[in-house]
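Check this:
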Amino acid sequence: MKEQPSLPPPGGAVRIERDSLGTVEVPGDRLWGAQTERARRHFAIGHEAMPLEVIHAYGLLKGAAAAVNAELGALDPVRARWIQAAAAEVAAGTLDDHFPLRIWQSGSGTQTNMNVNEVLARRATELAGTAGADCPPIHPNDHVNRSQSTNDTFPAVMHLATVQAWAVHLLPAVATLEQQLTAKAEAFAALIKIGRTHLQDAVPMTLGQEFRAFAAQLQQARAALEAARDPLCELPLGATAVGTGLNAPPEFGPRTCARLAETTGLAFRPASNPFAALAAHDALAQASATLRTLAGALIKVANDLRWLGSGPRCGLGELRLPENEPGSSIMPGKVNPTQCEAVLMVAAQVYGLDAAVAQAAALGNFQLNVYKPLIIYNVLTATRLLGDACRSFGEHLVRGVEANQERLKQNVEECLMMVTALTGVLGYDRAAKVAQKAHREGLSLRAACLALGWLDAATFDATVQPAKLVGAG
């Protein structure tokens, strides 16, 4: 999620703007109008600015809406052309300094919609004047917001911003990490190690099998994200205030969705039920839950890798993790699994963000959910954190991880659970006695078995062969 730039404090030259409540002073060098200024003053809560992904998505939407309104005869072509030109600047990010509002505002996002409407109206007028064009006055509500309501446009940009952020930032990062884990699985395919269940020694496997399981978790998370993305491509444009489409031409929503799909290359389409799309945000709740699932997969991978790399001498030590930076201000030479720790903190944060989204999505009343800014802020924050974490984890840890083959071999030779191979020859009870004798007397399994006289050396050696016990997975 892109951060809002800081704005200079109010002061200096001002101009007088008017809205339905009267007049208000606005900083003279800013494009916003009276309603934005009122919101800036009345909602000075926290530092969490409306994500710029939302603002840029609004630029795309307003440009498409102006074009469709002109096609349908709902807006004159001259105004539409200049609104489109200004909207292109918003979508491109060149007007980011003119969107100062925080997410703690009206739960519908009305103040942000009006911020966009006011900036576009004033900027479109400026562009027309600079070009020497004869353009009639452009009004934020009457022209920029024609055929629209905050109640349908804000949910639309919530979906639009999320789908774009996933396509550009998150899904490629997850796919890359999956590929990096797969590459390590192939490199470690022949290295036999001891598996562990219940944090106790288990039967052997290969290090490649262990890493392929990590890659499979990422693949499953990516598939779940792609499945959760499809409902987000439904946009409730044309639903206006409560879902009925009042004040919007019947073709406005379908045509605007089609134009957005053409512009972005993403499969946007009209909402199957516009009333539900305004009253609830189940698709975003599902998206957030899917982000949490990805976070859970990263917890598993990061935790396993830091334990497998623990040591270097007094831990498991089966992996050598990249040494990226000194790890202690007091212990010379210490290096810590910091990439794993960063991923674990990101995952914990994503769990908290999802808890808030789940709560907010459940609290819609009648025809409108009024937690929209919170929901989209948390979803985009989680998206940014997880995308960044996957990239950092893959680049600075997974790519450079190495196997400690000496430790792997030593563990295999010492593991008592290799006795499992003897159950088919000795039976479960006698095989257990072999393991118990070896553990109690500090013997190898081979020595314990021979001491009990149940197998000769040749039979033991032919039966207990680690390479034959790892399967073909």
